Amino acid sequence: MWRIVPLFLFLCACTQDAETPDVSAGTGQTNERPNILLIVADDLGYSDIGVFGSEISTPNLDKLAAEGMVLRNFYTGPTCSVSRSMLMSGMDNHIAGLGNMAETVADNQLGVPGYEGHLNKRVDTIAEVVRPAGYHTYMAGKWHLGMQPEQSPGSRGFEQSFALLYGGASHFGDMTGPDAHRDPALYRENGRLLSELPKDFYSTTFYTDRVISQIDSNIGDGEPFLAFLSYTAPHWPLQAPDEYLDKYRGQYDDGYDATRERRFAKQKGLGLFPPATPEPPRPAHVRPWDELSAEEQRFHAQNMEIYAAMIDHMDMSIGRVLEYLAQQDEMDNTIIVFISDNGADPWDYDHSPPAVGNYAARFDNSAENRGREGSFVFYGAEWAHVSNTPFTRFKGSAYEGGIRSPAIVNWPARIKGGQVSESLTYIADWFPTFAGLAGVSETKSSGKNLLPLLQGSVEAVRDDTETVGIEAWGKRGIVSQQFKFVSSPTVPHGRADWELYDLTVDPSEQTDLAADEPEEFAALKQEWDEYQSTNNVILPEGEFKIRPVGEKPTE
Question: Which residue is catalytic, options 136, 144, 235, 300?
Answer without folding.
Answer: 144
